[in-house]
Design a protein that fits this description.
15% strand; flat; 3-stranded mixed sheet; 45% helix; alpha+beta; 101 residues
Length: 101
């Protein structure tokens, strides 16, 4: 659990907060109006967080890439089921001249 402190108090106690993080192994969350604003973590914790984030990013494609891939398959007539019907995803409406009936 992290220690929470308002930003105004954190300004006055920055040196003490740094010592709590570095030597006490604590994590400090600085808040403004009761909402988390920033966190103070040790450099070792930061390295672990960055390594975990880069590992996760390398393992999982971004959600946007999955959507683009799915839309690309649909545009090529592939529904993802192995079945495709020519022209299935063509025009859904057709413009007709009002004078032709």
């Amino acid at each position: 659990m992290a220690y929470e402190i308002p930003v105004t108090q954190a300004r006055a106690e920055l040196a003490e907060l740094i010592n709590r993080v570095v030597y006490g192994g604590e994590r400090v969350v600085v808040t403004r109006h009761g909402k988390p604003l920033v966190a103070l973590v040790s450099a070792a914790d930061l390295e672990r967080l960055e390594a975990a984030a880069s590992q996760t990013a390398a393992e999982e494609p971004a959600a946007g890439e999955e959507v683009i891939s799915a839309v690309s398959r649909l545009g090529n007539g592939d529904t993802g089921t192995g079945w495709s019907e020519p022209g299935r995803y063509g025009l859904t409406a057709e413009h007709r001249d009002p004078g032709t009936g």
